[in-house]
Design brief:
Order of helices and strands of chain A: HHHHHHHHHHHHHHHHHHH
Number of helices of chain B: 14
Structural class of chain A: mainly alpha
Largest sheet of chain B: 6 strands, mixed
Helix content of chain A: over 70%
Radius of gyration of chain A: 23 Å
Oligomer: heterodimer
Number of strands of chain A: 0
Shape of chain A: globular
Structural class of chain B: alpha/beta
Helix content of chain B: 25-40%
Largest sheet of chain A: none
Radius of gyration of chain B: 24 Å
Distance between the termini of chain A: 16 Å
Strand order of the largest sheet of chain B: 6-13-11-12-10-9
Distance between the termini of chain B: 78 Å
Order of helices and strands of chain B: HEEHHHEEEHEHHHHHEHEEEEHEHEH
Strand content of chain B: 15-25%
Number of helices of chain A: 19
C-alpha cells in the first residue's frame, strides 16, 4: 500500500487511527504491529513472511548479543545478524544483477535469478541491522518484547520509503509515548504537506519528465526535462518523508528529519548533508566511522569514502548506473575536500550553479538504467547533435512556468519560514490559517488521486 | 508535553472530520456500477480468494474499486481539471483546453515501430490485391490536435502529424491535412469529442469523389442532438459548450445489416444512442465487426471500407455512390479479407482511419491476410 492512494486515505488511515486511539496504551504496539503487517502484506502478500523472518532473527540476535555482552560470542552474534541481513539483501536485491554482470564480464551462462524485489527491503534490513549494532555497542537497550520490536521493524509510516529510523532514535518512544491532540494536529499538517508535495508537484513534474525524455531531445528540452526530474524526485522523496514523519507524530513518534532543502546547497558536500539525511547518517555511523573515517590518514580516508559511496550508489538499485552514480559523487566529494570547497566560498552565484549542475547531471545517471540512453541525454544537455529547442519544450516551459516557480520557491526554506512567522502566536487567526492550508492541500490532493493521474512509486528499486 | 496549541487542536479536529467523512461516505453511499461520464463499467468489489491475494490481483482490483467508487468521483475529477488550468497548464487529463472552449485530445507520443509496420501491411495488401480491384485508396485523417493546433498555443507537446502523414505519402489518396486545414474555422471536429463532425467528413468526401461528389445541398442535414458531451469532455472533466451532432442524409434508399444478424435496417443511424452519453455511436450504432449496406444504385460498384470509428461519420456520404458497402472493422472482423473480397465480388477498397488511432492499431495486419 502507498500513502498517496485513495485506499490509504479513505479507508486504511481512518480505520487505523480510530482503533489506535481507542486502544489502551499497553496494546498500542500490538495494534501498530498488526496494522503495519496488513499495510505491508497488502502490497507484498508473500514477502511479508520475509519481513517477519527478519524481525524474529534480529529480535533473537539482540537478546543473544545482550546475554553474551563482553564475551567474544557477542561479536559472533553481531556478525551473524549483519550477515543474515546482508544475505537477504544479497539474495533478493542483488543476485540477479550479480549473475547477469558476471555473465556479461566473463562470458559465462550462469542462471540469472528472477526474484521480484520485496518493497522496502533496503529500508527495513538497514533498520534491523542498526538495532543489533546499537545493542552491541551498548547504545540502545535490548528489546525483550517481540511485539514492540515487531512494531519497530514493520512500522508502516516509514516502512517502504524511509526515513531510515535507527533503533536508538525511537527506543524510548517504543515503550513509552504519548498520543495527544497536539501530535495529531501537527502530524496531520505535516502529512497533508507531504501528500501535496507528492501528488500535486512530484507527479506533475514526473509526467512532464516522462514526456520530455521519451520524445525527441533538444538542448532546452533536456534541461527542462532534467529540472522536472530533479523537482519530481525531491518532492516525491521529501514528500514521502513528510508523510512518514507526520504519520509518526499522529502515532506518538518523533522521527528524524530526512531532507533539509538540499537544492539550496552551495557544494556537493553540503547537498549530501541535506539530502536523504537518514541514509547518510546510517552509512556514517555503521560504515564510515567503523572503517576508521578520517582518523587513519588521508589515503585511508579516500578508500573509506570510496567504499561508502559505492555502497550508497548500489543501495539505490541493483544496476551499473547506480554504482556509477555513487562513484560520480565520490569524485566530486573528494575534489571538494581536496581544494574545490575553498574556491566555492568565493562566489555565491557560481557555487549554487555548480552544485545544481553536478546534481542535475547526476540525476541523468540515476534516471537511466540504460547507459546509452544516459549518454545520449547528457549529449543533448551539452547541445551535441540536437536542435536548440522543440515545440514540446516550448509548450511545457510556457505552461509550467507558474508551477516551476512555485516548486523552485518551495524548495527553499522561505515558505516554511513565512508560515512559521504567521502562526507563531497561537491565535484563532493562526489556527484558521493552518486549517485552511490543511483543507486546501487535502482536497486538492484527493482530487488528483481520484482522477487517477500519473502516480508512480519511485522506490521499488531501493 | 506542553499544552496543545489552538492551531494543532483545530488541525486535529479538521483532519479527523475529513477522514471520518470520507470513510463514512465511502461505506454508506451507493456505488454506481457504470459511469455514463467515463463510458465504462467501474470496478466492482473483487471476490476474495487466497490465489487472488497471493498473485496480487485481489489488492490491485480492490484499489481500483476504491478509486472508482470514491465518493463524488466526478466532482473530484472536475476539481482536478480546474486546478490544472488555474495553475497555468493548458492540458489536463491528456486533453488540451483552448481559450475558445475546445477540448482536444493530445497526440504527444507515437509508437513509430507500430506505425511503420501498419504502413507496411497496407503496402503489402495493395500489392496483393493489384489488378483485382478498380481502386485501392487510403485516407488517414489528422486529429484536431494538428488541424486546430492554432487554437491551442503557438507550440504544443504534440508529435508532428504532418511528418507522420509524409511517411505514408505513397499510400495516401488525399492530403486530408490540407483539406481540413482549409476549413479550419468551421466546425469540422467536435469540441468535446475526439471525432470529426459530419461537416469535416464531407470536405474529405468532396475531395475524394472529385467530380462525382454531390453538393452540400444534395444532403438533408438533420440535427440529431444538441447536447453531446464526448470523450475529451470525459477525460478533462470540464466542458464549456455542448456539441451538435448532425446527420447528412442523401436520398439513397438502402438497407443495412450488422454482423450478419439477419435484421435488415433502413437507417445507418441508431437513434437509441441519442439518449445515452455515447451519442457518437448514433452513426452505425458504434463499431461493428461487419456491416453490409445494399442500396438502390444498380451501378455494380461494391466497396469494402476498412476503418475505425472516424469512418462511421463518413459512411453517409458513400451511400449515393455504391451498390454495396461492406464496412469492416479489423479489430473484430475474423474472416480473411482477400477471400471476402473475392467472394463478394468487391470492386473498390477504401481504408479510412484517424491518424492517431491508426498509429496505435494492432489489427492492421489482418488487411494483408
Amino acid at each position: 500500500m502507498i500513502f498517496s492512494s485513495p485506499l490509504f486515505i479513505a479507508l486504511f488511515l481512518p480505520s487505523v487511527l480510530a482503533v489506535y486511539y481507542l486502544t489502551p496504551r499497553s496494546l498500542k504496539n500490538l495494534v501498530l504491529f498488526l496494522a503495519s503487517l496488513f499495510f505491508y502484506g497488502w502490497g507484498e502478500p508473500v514477502y511479508v513472511s520475509l519481513m517477519l523472518f527478519s524481525t524474529v532473527v534480529d529480535y533473537t540476535h539482540g537478546i543473544l548479543v545482550d546475554k553474551y555482552r563482553g564475551t567474544p560470542r557477542a561479536r559472533v552474534f553481531l556478525w551473524s545478524s549483519v550477515l543474515i541481513n546482508l544475505g537477504l539483501l544479497g539474495i533478493f536485491k542483488y543476485s540477479g544483477f550479480l549473475a547477469a554482470s558476471i555473465n556479461g564480464l566473463l562470458g559465462l551462462h550462469l542462471p540469472v535469478p528472477q526474484l521480484a524485489l520485496p518493497i522496502g527491503i533496503s529500508f527495513y534490513t538497514f533498520q534491523t541491522m542498526s538495532y543489533t549494532i546499537d545493542v552491541y555497542r551498548g547504545q540502545a537497550p535490548v528489546q525483550r518484547n517481540i511485539i514492540s520490536f515487531g512494531a519497530y521493524v514493520a512500522l508502516f509510516p516509514q516502512l517502504i520509503a524511509g526515513p531510515i529510523v535507527r533503533y536508538i532514535d525511537v527506543a524510548a518512544q517504543l515503550d513509552d509515548r504519548t498520543c495527544s491532540a497536539d501530535g495529531l494536529g501537527a502530524g496531520a499538517s505535516r502529512f497533508v504537506c507531504g501528500l501535496s508535495k507528492k501528488v500535486l508537484l512530484a507527479n506533475t513534474f514526473g509526467g512532464i519528465w516522462e514526456s520530455l525524455s521519451g520524445g525527441p531531445l533538444s538542448l532546452a528540452g533536456s534541461w527542462l526535462g532534467i529540472l522536472c526530474y530533479a523537482l519530481q524526485i525531491y518532492y516525491d522523496f521529501s514528500g514521502y518523508s513528510d508523510m512518514a514523519i507526520g504519520l509518526g507524530r499522529m502515532l506518538g513518534f518523533d522521527f528524524p528529519e530526512n531532507f533539509n532543502y538540499p537544492y539550496i546547497s552551495r557544494s556537493v558536500t553540503e547537498f549530501w548533508r541535506r539530502w536523504h539525511i537518514s541514509l547518510g547518517t546510517w552509512f556514517r555511523e555503521y560504515v564510515y566511522i567503523p572503517l576508521g573515517g578520517n582518523r587513519r590518514g588521508p589515503a585511508r580516508q579516500i578508500v573509506n569514502l570510496l567504499v561508502v559511496w559505492l555502497c550508497t550508489g548500489i543501495w539505490h538499485g541493483a544496476g551499473w548506473n547506480f554504482l556509477l552514480w555513487g562513484l560520480y559523487y565520490f569524485c566530486f566529494l573528494v575534489l571538494e575536500k581536496r581544494f574545490l570547497l575553498r574556491h566555492l566560498q568565493r562566489s555565491r552565484v557560481l557555487s549554487h550553479l555548480y552544485t545544481l549542475a553536478v546534481v542535475c547531471f547526476g540525476w541523468v545517471l540515476f534516471a537511466f538504467e540504460d547507459m546509452t540512453a544516459a549518454w545520449a541525454y547528457m549529449g543533448a544537455m551539452a547541445g551535441i547533435g540536437v536542435p536548440a529547442v522543440t515545440g514540446s519544450a516550448l509548450y511545457y516551459a510556457a505552461t509550467l512556468c507558474p508551477l516551476l516557480l512555485a516548486a523552485a520557491v518551495g524548495s527553499t526554506p522561505l515558505p516554511c519560514r513565512l508560515y512559521q512567522k504567521a502562526v507563531r502566536k497561537d491565535t484563532p487567526a493562526a489556527a484558521l490559517l493552518a486549517g485552511a492550508l490543511l483543507l486546501a492541500g487535502f482536497a486538492a490532493s484527493t482530487a488528483y488521486l481520484v482522477a487517477g493521474t500519473y502516480n508512480p512509486f519511485l522506490y521499488f528499486r531501493f | 508535553m506542553h499544552t496543545p496549541s489552538l492551531r494543532n487542536k483545530f488541525s486535529a479536529l479538521l483532519f479527523v472530520l475529513l477522514l471520518a467523512a470520507l470513510f463514512a461516505a465511502f461505506l454508506l453511499l451507493p456505488k454506481r456500477g457504470y459511469s455514463e461520464n467515463e463510458n465504462r463499467y467501474l470496478t466492482e468489489k473483487p471476490n476474495f480468494s487466497l490465489d487472488a491475494l497471493l498473485s496480487g490481483s485481489y489488492t490491485a482490483d480492490f484499489e481500483s474499486y476504491v478509486t472508482d467508487g470514491f465518493p463524488f468521483r466526478d466532482a473530484w475529477i472536475s476539481l482536478k481539471s480546474h486546478l490544472d488550468l488555474a495553475a497555468g497548464r493548458r492540458d489536463t487529463g491528456g486533453v488540451y483546453v483552448t481559450d475558445d472552449g475546445c477540448l482536444i485530445e493530445m497526440f504527444d507520443s507515437v509508437d513509430q515501430t507500430q506505425y511503420d509496420r501498419n504502413l507496411e501491411y497496407l503496402r503489402a495488401a495493395r500489392e496483393a490485391l493489384e489488378g483485382r480491384l478498380d481502386s485501392f485508396r487510403v485516407l488517414l485523417v489528422p486529429t484536431a490536435a494538428k488541424v486546430w493546433q492554432y487554437r491551442i498555443a503557438p507550440y504544443t507537446a504534440d508529435i508532428d502529424q504532418a511528418q507522420l502523414l509524409d511517411q505514408a505519402g505513397d499510400l495516401l489518396s488525399l492530403d486530408c491535412l490540407q483539406i481540413l486545414s482549409d476549413h479550419r474555422e468551421e466546425e469540422i471536429y467536435y469540441r468535446t469529442d475526439h471525432h470529426w463532425t459530419s461537416r469535416g467528413a464531407y470536405y474529405v468526401y468532396e475531395a475524394l469523389m472529385g467530380t462525382e461528389a454531390l453538393p452540400e445541398s444534395a444532403f438533408t442535414v438533420e440535427t440529431l442532438s444538441e447536447d453531446f458531451l464526448g470523450t475529451t469532455f470525459s477525460k478533462a472533466g470540464i466542458w464549456f459548450e455542448k456539441d451538435r451532432i448532425e446527420a447528412w442524409q442523401p436520398d439513397t434508399v438502402y438497407t443495412i445489416e450488422h454482423n450478419l444478424d439477419g435484421r435488415l435496417l433502413d437507417s445507418m443511424y441508431d437513434r437509441s444512442f441519442l439518449d445515452k452519453k455515447d451519442k457518437y455511436s448514433v452513426f452505425l450504432g458504434g463499431n461493428q465487426a461487419l456491416s453490409v449496406i445494399r442500396t438502390d444504385n444498380a451501378n455494380g460498384r461494391r466497396l469494402v471500407l476498412v476503418k475505425d470509428s472516424y469512418a462511421n461519420t463518413f459512411v453517409q456520404f458513400l451511400l449515393p455512390h455504391y451498390e454495396e458497402i461492406h464496412i469492416v472493422d479489423l479489430r473484430s472482423f475474423a474472416l480473411p479479407l482477400s477471400a471476402y473480397i473475392e467472394e463478394q465480388q468487391i470492386t473498390d477498397l477504401l481504408v479510412l482511419y484517424n491518424l492517431k488511432g491508426f498509429s496505435q492499431e494492432t489489427s492492421v495486419f489482418r488487411i494483408a491476410k
